[in-house]
Amino acid sequence: MWGFYRFDRRNAYLVDFQNAGASKVPKSRMMSLSLKYRIILSMLVVFHLAAVFIGPWSMRPYDSAFSSALAQAWLPYLRAASLDNGYRFFAPEPGPSHLVRYELAMPDGSAVEGVFPDLSEHQPRLLYHRHFMLSEFLNTLDNPAFENPDLETSPPAPELADLARWKRLHGELIQSVARHLLVTSAAEEITLYLRRHNIPLPEEVARGVALDDSRWIEEKLLGSFSREELE
Amino acid sequence: MNPLDHVKDWFADGWRGWNDFWFAPRDSAMLGAIRILAGSMLFYTHFVWTLDFLAFFGPHAWISRDLAARLQGDPFAWSHLWMVQSPPWLWITHFFALLVFLLFTIGLFTKVTSVLAWLFAVSYAHRAIGTQFGLDQINIVLAMYLMLGPSGAAYSVDRWLASKRSAGPQAPAAPSIRANIATRLLQIHMCVIYLFAGLAKLQGPSWWNGTAMWGAIANLQYQSLDMTWLVHYPIAVAVLTHVTVFWEISYCALVWPKWIRPVIILLAVPLHLGIAVCLGMATFGMAMMYGNLAFVPPKVARALFDRKLQPRLDEASLGGKTSSSPRNTRRRHRLNSRVG
To answer: Does the CB of A144 have a partner CB in chain B at under 8 Å?
Structure first.
């Protein structure tokens, strides 16, 4: 990182090699900031860059005791500045996608079915993606660890309490989504399913099997609710 | 030389290098260019909320306000939307936020609108938990550093108004330490983003066996351009997979040496363009490319956008001479410093 600038004594200019041909910078202006301010700014920079690094480093579930402790120390800043992101794009690997299918029982006795995200309904693409992230979030909160009997019976107290909290929040999230659909559709009852669309195998696709073939799709019941239950 | 002197020299060199890295002035031209691009993205991102605004933020939102607050789990995830619940007030604050993003994009009252733009971006992200993705993260990163740096000092209405007031050709703003610190922070933040994006992939077997890219292109919900014909070219799929991981992990090191930087930055284009065109995330792909502009020298922005301005400035300040001799370059620099 060091040494991108060189002091040109003859012309009393700092040549910015990093910026490859950018304007020469008078030394006087570089030194216009007093040592006191440079030290204060340096401390702020170090504090901020520590947060920038700790945010993704401490992201669960791959955090360590050390990274968690640091994240705890930086928590107010990380959260307030929204720096607590993992940046784990398509990681650990591109997996199946998740949608939500719902069945509405209308007051006249008819049934209406829908799925979100729905590209034909949610346009532009960014709006579709918001709905897609919502259905993915319903899956993310449905942590498979909840169904792990080892975790249920051997109680690492903080972990278990945390899992129990997320399990409760997952239930509340399903209800919130159900309530929204009931209110906006004026339906009487709703049943929600989480639809998992698995990644098609390359050899099957090479043989001509479509990406939306039913063999790639699984469904799981999320819950059934009446309007009275959710009011 | 005793060992203590070596240690002293080491610290002295380090401090000098630190000063050179952070506290040398930088032209704000590239920050100004990024402001226009990132500001447009911030405006568009939040404008799209408008199309189904109450469904995401209203009293009967997909994720209710109270549940969103509980999901956040602590009081540090602040949002003005925790306090606003009635639809009229929600709409008023939303249109005010859109106005802020618009003014920030064109560079009007930038000192204020840059701060407000970052505040609104963070505020919406906290409330919209569960519906976010990488776009929101990079939006906030860009807004933060454009707020810290003088992003309105170039290519802005503020600058144009200053020029009108001075009743003559306005020289570009003088290079500033603030512009350098903001650019450096954005550069390092981009390195951290790519480093962790790459490291996280190392946990997935498909990123090792070369099939991960298939998982992305065969995902119907992401797909915006059918690339499944690549199934007949498994080596191409593997190469794309490996290049992605190697590039992401090595970005934080290879983007600094000047001789290889253009290659590393140019590789960002096909990677993010691929995400934009094939995986239906044009907004995210473009925002990541805007972040990469932090590594492009400001002189590129000047060369692209100052063609009309610069000759006029040269003529005005150098009595019609447009020589680029060292003497005139220094003289031009002094003139610019006075105006800026």
So the answer is: no
- Residue B131 has its nearest CB partner, among A96, A134, A200, at A134
Q: What pLDDT score was predicted for residue B337?
A: 44
pLDDT of residue A161: 72
Which residue, among A9, A10, A15, A11, has the nearest Cα to B24 in the 3D structure?
A15
- C-alpha to C-alpha distance for B255 and B259, rounded to whole angstroms: 9
* pLDDT score at B327: 52
Q: Is A22 on the interface with B (CB under 8 A)?
A: yes
Query: What is the spatial distance between Cα B334 and Cα B340, in angstroms, rounded to a whole number?
Result: 10
Task: Please determine, for residue A50, whether its predicted confidence score (pLDDT) is greater than 80.
Answer: yes
Asked if B189's CB is within 8 angstroms of A80's CB, the reply is no
Cα B232 to Cα B287: distance, rounded to the nearest angstrom: 32
Sign of CA dihedral B142, A138, B278, B196: positive
Q: Per-residue pLDDT averaged across B290-302, rounded?
A: 95
- B87 CB neighbour count, 10 Å cutoff: 13
Q: Annotate B151-192 with DSSP letters as a single string.
A: TTSSSSHHHHHHHHHTTSPPPPPPPBHHHHHHHHHHHHHHHH
Alpha carbon distance B15, B123 (integer Å): 37
The alpha helices in chain A, defined as continuous H runs, are 27-30, 35-57, 65-80, 125-141, 149-153, 157-185, 202-206, 227-230
| Rounded-to-integer distance, Cα A195 and Cα A115, Å | 9
The average pLDDT across B89-93 equals 98
Q: Is A67 on the interface with B (CB under 8 A)?
A: no
- With an 8 Å Cβ cutoff, is A205 touching chain B? yes
Across the interface, of B60, B231, B297, the residue whose CB is closest to A180 is B60
Nearest to B304 by CA among B180, B157, B154: B154
Nearest C-alpha of chain A: how many angstroms from B67?
7
Please state, in angstroms and as integers, the Cα–Cα distance from residue A139 to each residue in A196, B60, B212, following that order: 9, 21, 21
The answer on pLDDT for B311 being more than 60 is no
Chain B interface includes A157 (CB < 8 A): no
- According to DSSP, the β-strands at A25-26 and A217-226 are unpaired
Q: What is the pLDDT of residues B312-327, one digit of tens each?
A: 544 444 443 334 445 5
Q: What is the number of alpha carbons within 13 Å of residue A205 lying toward its C-beta?
A: 23
